[in-house]
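Figure caption, in words: inputs first, then the predicted bound structure.
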Amino acid sequence: MKNLLSLLLLVGTAMAKEDILAYPRAYWENSVTVWFWVAVAIYIIVAVPSIYFMVKYRYRPKENEEGAHIEGNTAIEIVWTVIPTIIVLFLGTYSFANFVKQRNAPEGALEIKVTAFMWGWEFEYPNGKKVYTFFNQVADPEKNIYLMPEKIDDSAKAYIPAGKPIKVYCTSRDVIHSFFVHEARVTEDCVPGRITKLWFQFNKPGEYWVFCREYCGTWHSRMASVLKVVSEDEFNKWLGGQEAQQTAPANEPAQPVQQ
Amino acid sequence: MAVAHVPPAGTWYGATLKEWVFTTDHKKIGMLYFITSLIFFIVAGLFGLIIRFEQSAPGIQLPGLFGQEGTDLYNYILTGHGAVMLLWWAVNVWMGGFANFLVPLMIGARDVAFPRLNAFSYWSFFGASLLVLLTLIPGNWIKMLWTGYAPYSMNDNAGPTSLYVLIVLLYGISSTGGSVNMITTIVSMRAKGIGWTKLNLFVHAIMAASLIQLFGVPSLMGSVILLFTDKYLGTNFYNPMLGGDPLLYQHLLWFYSHPVVYVMILPAFGVFSEVISTMSRKPIFGYISMALAIYAIAFVGFETWVHHMFVSGVPDWLRVLFSYTTLFVGVPTGIKIFNWVATLHKASIRYNTPMLFTFGGILMFLIGGLTGIPNAMVSIDLGISDSLFIVGHFHYVLGMALTFGAFSGIYYWYPKVTGRMYSEGLGKLSFWLMLIGANIMFFFQMYMGMVHGMPRRYPDYPPIPEWVQLMQIQTVGALIMTVAILLSLINWIKSLGGPKAEENPWKSPSLEWSMTTTPVGPNNFKKYPVEVPDDWHPYAYYKGYHTHI
Ligand code: HEM
Ligand SMILES: [Cu+2]
Ligand SMILES: [Cu+2]
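Bound structure (protoporphyrin IX containing FE present):
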């Protein structure tokens, strides 16, 4: 039940945006809300008459034995071609508008290099600091299952400053992997021989999973790591270098740069 | 030359084993395909259940049974489930089974255009089937998933790539032969008086699906041939370390593998149309727009493949462009759904098993279609790509709309093929269980993918209590579905000894019902060549052709 409530919350309050946990999730939620209500409306428009007809026009001996001879109706068929076309254009354009913001990192983002490999991740920070994560570090060695983030050793977590956009450049050393941060609702494949990009920003300190979302072999389902989102001070202390001193945009990211 | 033809005694199926093996009769070949598909459906379904059980708890359970190989076994089973469900069940139950049996009957032909090519197509499909069985042997496990993405598929971890390539090639040869046969048959062997506007919508669907196969399969075969030469002969099409491009593989694969979903679903639409019209005793609403929508879907289907690659690193403008084209498929699809609903208006609806499965199929398709929109809206896809949401969505569409369509078709034509009547009670029970089970299973799968972001193809996941709970709910749904499918299988087998069916139990004017005996005679038609009156139409219920042709 709690699950269903969270779904309703998602589609009901996304527009209210009081407490934005993460970007580009906020833009994602706008699109989801629009889709959800359009889908519900279409569903009702189709389901209500269907059920009505199914009950009203059922076969009844001696009363309703033959269907009427109706072959079609051009006017109504044009209507239900034109209106869906308009809806399609609307949905496409709405998604396009959000997509531009989801894809282009705001100015002043902290840039991180991520290299995926079978089966783990290497994070490299601007000052050269590197963090490696693979399943051994996020697993309970005895039971051989995932540990929850609280129990994982901090040395195996990638630190991220809160309230600051992070731009990730991703590539892979072997096969295709995919960098996925669920709480920020972003995914981008890491392709050998290519550099792909994505960005996200967490406003609330906490620990968030990263999973691999492109099938990559035996331990695909264990290719996880943890992002530890901390205050900017704490982050700088952890990083230990001179990097990341650009001013943080307060909670709201600056306008995305077109590239 | 109109020769009144007296069908020889006996039914279409009575023959010795040797005659079955060397047959070129479209009905026998159709049944060979059909039975092969059904066997593989059952096997792949069992694989699906194993996947479900593995995911019911965090951690990897299969190693307990199979040592360290457990994860690889899981990946093999998932590969098998996906590939076999798609290629053996979803495509070939229609293109091999239903189309072969029904198309000649629906257009008034004695056989398909190239009967020997037809037999050849079946036997290459059979060869591919044997190779699939070989993968059951440990050491032969193919673990690259049905998509076989390069460069992973060139990695030794992925299993025997050469076997995978050979299977796909044999399968491709079979499909190409089959589609050439269907297209030629429909274009050139329609009986006198059956124009393009008097074809059953099922035949239009097979025509469109065959065109897709003809244009798409070469791309699939090309993609795996390049894979083969890359892995074994030192070429570098996909290997980025040597200047190749892994995305090339994805473009070639999806150029076929997206349109092929319409090969799977258009014939189901065809069955929905046949059954709705028959059981409502009413012509299908908007016949012309229904037929045009079929071809529009097939055509636009070729312009949408990049939506499988929205997060693969392709340029942003390409993602936006393909977002629009993908969404656009919704328009002709919507036309079809609206027309079905309109057909019910002022109908006289009989609620028997085929009709229930058709209603269920349309309902599942509606949900599947509406949940396809987020995959097409590129801004949403960034958050749900490769998650269980996608898996839930396509199980609504393929897993269920398609399977409901196939079950509806099997019940509907059961009397025509076997001469016997199935059991309605068992059929209806099977339907209700399947509807309930499928919705429990796949709704929560989608829900989990969207709200919790669970990635697809995961045997293992963090022990978050909510995740575990959601996974177990799905397992309950899968078990209910399993019972439902078993009930239908029992029904079909048991009813072979059931009561004799009437000649035209649905009182349909469509040729396969009105002009053949039940079961069909060896030469198909009571009178040959077939000729139909000028005002004949397969959906002309109001004219009572079932009684006087
Ligand atoms: C009979 C009931 C079925 C059950 C219980 C079932 C269950 C599943 C499960 C649990 C997965 C794995 C999800 C994941 O973690 O990625 C899966 C994947 C899949 N299923 Fe099914 N399924 C069923 C029927 C079907 C049917 C009828 C089709 C197609 C016509 C189908 C096609 C697929 C495909 C293509 C995949 C994806 C495989 C991959 O990721 O490569 N399934 N199914
Ligand atoms: Cu990976
Ligand atoms: Cu992976």
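Residues 151 and 258 of chain A are 40 Å apart (CA to CA).
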